[in-house]
Amino acid sequence: MPPLVRRLPEGSVALVTGASRGIGRAMACALAEAGAHCILVARTVGGLERTDDLIAARHGDAGDRTAQRATLLPMDLTDGAALDLLGPSVMARFGRLDILVHCAATLGVLTPVTHMDVAAWQDCLALNTTAAWRLIRTTAPLLEGAAHGRAVFLTDAHACVPAPFWGMVAASRAAQDALVRTWACEIPATSGLRVNLFDPGIVATRMRRQAMPGGDPAPLPRPEQVARQIVPLCLPGEMRHGQRIVAMPVVQQG
């Protein structure tokens, strides 16, 4: 895959959730390639370290801390108290935040609405909805203060189109989307901040394997291909705001 040619302004700082695997990992690598210092957030330390290794290998900065492209931040996004401190912590460490890409999510349990388990329902809402709200609240002051603040929240087609057994994902994502778009409406027209939703479609990720264990991942887009469609939404020249953007189809080479 050819390298990115679009670059972020010098000193840009990006926060990527779900950065231990899948689209989150690919997004962190793509933003680092575009010139950002990436704050990698996920629960799994080993996964974050793997992402960090990939970034370091691509930029040849192993052992050179002056060229460090990533900061690892192991965190459970359902821990509200810890998440509330994220924005102030980023401010104390970096003094800025230019980009937020929220990729972390959970599938929940695929089951009829009438069979939903209370604990599974609450867990799904905690990560897919409440965490997004807390992220908005804790990072908004930094993003609004950036010259070209950009925030992208991954979503799912089920938020708009219902399907049997996908009620947990549908409800939690629809609620997240409403919060994000409402926030976008509240941002003054004079602000440089742009906030959008991005629906990656069906991608070859672990979550997809969990949902459809018998499916063939070969024809599906790879996370790296999807990430390259998200990067433009993080650039200073992106003017779309409050929109739901759907990934363009990717044709896999045989």
UniProtKB/TrEMBL annotation:
Q: What is the lineage of its organism?
A: Bacteria, Pseudomonadati, Pseudomonadota, Alphaproteobacteria, Acetobacterales
Q: Name one Pfam family in it.
A: adh_short
| Protein name per Swiss-Prot or TrEMBL | Short-chain dehydrogenase/reductase SDR
Q: Name one GO cellular component term.
A: membrane
A single GO molecular function, which one? oxidoreductase activity
Q: What keyword terms does UniProt attach to this protein?
A: Oxidoreductase
- What InterPro entries does this protein's entry cite? NAD(P)-bd_dom_sf, SDR_fam
Presence of keyword Ribosomal protein: no
Q: Which organism is it from?
A: Novacetimonas hansenii ATCC 23769
Write the signal peptide boundaries: none
So what family is this one in?
Belongs to the short-chain dehydrogenases/reductases (SDR) family.
